[in-house]
Design brief:
Elements (H helix, E strand, L loop, with lengths): L3 E3 L4 H8 L18 E8 L2 E8 L2 E3 L2 H6 L4 E3 L11 H5 L6 E4 L1 E6 L6 E7 L5 E4 L16 E9 L16
Length: about 170
């Protein structure tokens, strides 16, 4: 998973891909990072529904609360054994599916990192599990199926991937 992703598809295409209820036109942001709105699919009453949600969880630490500052937002859950996630990951009602077309990672030297976008060559839309346990879902996508686009966009404050759902650059 990544702290940066993009969904360069229509809401109708996403609904078809996820077999979710059509929801009309939801404006999709060009890219999503911690604290911004992103599209998710969740199940309620046996029905799959799409909706926009704030990406990430507030990281509440004692010092931050004492200083009355806004908590840092965590958008990447790398360690499900951390007590912070103990209750969330075991309860199915806290799970969702995150549709994406691209995910981004930083590339380059410290202080000069740029955005590198990844997509799957033969799959215009894919999805991540909001939470999962080891071995619960399919294995990772094979490296040869991945497309990579290195950009000159700065990692912090750069733009979304170019229009089009597929990048064919490995």
């Amino acid at each position: 998973m990544s702290r940066l992703h993009s969904l360069r598809a229509t809401i109708d295409d996403v609904a078809r891909f996820l077999d979710a209820e059509p929801v009309g036109q939801i404006p999709l942001p060009p890219h999503v990072t911690e604290g911004r709105q992103g599209l998710v699919m969740f199940e309620a009453g046996g029905r799959r529904r799409l909706r926009m949600m704030r990406w990430g969880f507030p990281r509440r630490i004692r010092d931050t609360q004492l200083q009355r500052n806004e908590p840092e937002i965590i958008g990447l859950v790398a360690d499900l054994t951390n007590p912070l996630w103990e209750q969330t990951v075991v309860d199915p009602r806290y799970r969702c599916v995150i549709p994406i077309t691209h995910f981004g990672n930083p590339d380059g030297d410290e202080g000069a990192k740029t955005r590198t976008w990844f997509s799957v060559r033969d799959q215009p839309i894919l999805a991540w599990a909001g939470f999962c346990r080891n071995f619960q879902f399919r294995p990772p996508i094979a490296a040869e199926r991945m497309a990579v686009l290195r950009t000159e966009d700065p990692w912090r404050g750069g733009g979304p991937p170019p229009d089009g759902t597929q990048l064919d650059l490995l």
